[in-house]
Structure formats: C-alpha cells, structure tokens
Write a structure and sequence with these properties.
It contains no helices and 23 strands. By secondary structure, the protein is mostly beta strands. The chain has a 6-stranded antiparallel sheet with strand order 14-15-16-17-18-19, with no helix packed on it. Strand 14 and strand 15 form a beta hairpin. The protein starts with 6 loop residues before the first strand and ends in a 16-residue tail after the last strand.
Length: 296
C-alpha cells in the first residue's frame, strides 16, 4: 500500500479533470516524491512550477507539473511547516524554532534571515514581493516589508497557537488557531478577535476577497469537524458541516468553488461557497495537510 512517506499525492497540488467526467472520483492520482519525509505544505507558481516542504528540512521543487520532484539542498534539518512562492526565482519557507529560509535562485542557495522568534512558525504568506507575514505558536505574528531580509514582531494580543495567516490586501488580514480567529485592518499593527471558541482547533483560513472567507476546524467538545464561513469580512461567522472531513487545509478559487483536505485522506469539494460539501476519493488514508489549486 502506498504511504505519504513514499509518494507525494497530486491532491495537495492540483486537480486533473477527465474529458468525460468533471470531478471524477478517479481524478486524484499519486506522484512519486522521492523522499521519505512527511510533506506539510505545497504551493505552485504556475501549472509547471511548484514547491513542497516538510520534516527534516526537506524542500522539493518540480518544473514539470509534479511528474518529477527535485530535492533542494539546504543546511537546515528543522521541520518546515509552510511554503510561499513569489516568483520563479524567489521562494520562502518557515518552520520550527523560528526558522525562515529564502531563496533568490530557484532553490540552489538558501539564506536564513533572523526572524527574532524561537517558536514554531506554522504559516507564511506574502501579499507581494516585499510584504509578508508568518505566524506560529504562542500568538506569534511577524512581518517583513523588505522581501524577507528583516522581520519584526507584531502584537497579536493573544497567546494561542496560530496555525494559518491570510491577507486579502495589504491592510486586511486574518489569523486562526487554537480557539479563535483574529483580524487586522491596518497591515498587522493591531489585531482584534472576530471569532472565539476555546473548543475549536482552527487549522487554516482563506479569503477570496475582503468579504468572503473560510476556516476549517476540529471541535474538541463534540469531536466533530466543521467549517466556518463569513460573507462580511469576519463580522459574523456561520458554521457548516463537512461530513466528517477533519479539515486541515482549505483553498477556494472563487466565492463558490473550493476544496478541503484533511485527516485520513479526506478531500471535500464545494460549489456553493462552503455551505455543503461533497467527498472526493483520494486513494489514501494518510493525512493530507495542504491543498492548492492553479485554476478550476
């Protein structure tokens, strides 16, 4: 039986349609990663070029839609949790012990800018080539305005573990984590709570525009997985069931159409803004920690 330590599933990169049946249950196929490390995050620049990172400092890059993956050399062995692609040359990744790595030559060399934190960084996100954010344990949020050369700490006003960060524009951003969602309207200078529930483990957050956003979570009190959705920039959030999907990662390509990946090989698909979800077969029971689409 294939395991995620032996193969890298295309399901955490992009979706392939068949000519006869859109969203076919056989539409997800495995790809050979060439590593035994667990893979935590995936992002693509275009249909051909993509990156994935994971445990023991592993960084993989593909230039042929994932048909083959190249292991990029770096001097670091700490687990990497998140990757963000800026251009064909520039890529960032963040991970344990405050580690941030940057390449400006497609991964041939990596620099290690000082993040000024020592906690695990769970998510990294860039609004543009200059401005980026990373978030992690103990309420940590850090920001760069010079393409990652230097980073400074922002006051999050929370001490919870923050798992995901996303900005819809340079001013408006959201973070989610163990028990809540927090929002900024001034580029991260101040953060305020929008949604608080201490029983929830919110794993990912994604906005298609300043008004429409989603976050997937696991409820420790009812042991049930759900997602919350907003249509007013987070002023209010509505719960929607996800049929025991145990969501870890969410990605929407439009206000209506999105996917979720999660525990035990779960992939869910929505065509109505996340109010209802349909299961898609992944062909694995391994946890699927990251999902990303280039187009529909």
């Amino acid at each position: 039986m294939f395991t995620i330590k032996k193969i890298f599933f295309i399901l955490i990169t992009f979706f392939i349609f068949t000519n006869s049946i859109c969203f076919s249950q056989t539409g997800w196929i495995p790809q050979i990663s060439g590593t035994t490390d667990s893979l935590k995050s995936v992002r693509f620049l275009n249909i051909n070029t993509g990156w994935t990172v994971g445990t023991n400092g592993v960084i993989l890059r593909t230039t042929n839609s994932g048909t083959s993956w190249m292991k990029m050399k770096n001097a670091f062995t700490k687990d990497l949790q998140s990757v963000c692609v800026i251009s064909d040359l520039v890529c960032f990744t963040a991970g344990d012990s405050g580690l941030i790595l940057k390449t400006t030559n497609s991964g041939n060399n990596w620099s290690n800018p000082n993040s000024h934190v020592s906690v695990k960084l769970n998510s990294i996100f860039f609004i543009n080539a200059q401005t980026g954010f990373s978030t992690g344990n103990d309420g940590t949020i850090i920001k760069t305005i010079d393409s990652g050369s230097s980073w400074f700490i922002l006051a999050s006003n929370t001490g919870i573990q923050l798992n995901s960060i996303h900005f819809s524009d340079p001013d408006k951003g959201w973070v989610c984590g163990y028990g809540g969602i927090f929002h900024t309207t001034n580029g991260g200078a101040q953060w305020s709570p929008q949604f608080i529930d201490g029983n929830l483990i919110l794993s990912s957050i994604y906005f298609t525009d300043p008004q429409h956003g989603w976050s997937g979570y696991y409820d420790n009190s009812t042991f049930g997985p759900e997602n919350v959705r907003t249509t007013d920039g987070g002023l209010s959030w509505t719960n929607h069931p996800m049929n025991n999907s145990y969501s870890i990662s969410l990605f929407f390509i439009s206000e209506n159409k999105g996917w979720s990946s999660g525990f035990y090989g779960s992939i869910m698909y929505s065509t109505n803004s996340g109010t209802a979800w349909t299961q898609q077969l992944s062909g694995t029971i391994e946890h699927l920690r990251s999902i990303y689409f280039i187009d529909s």
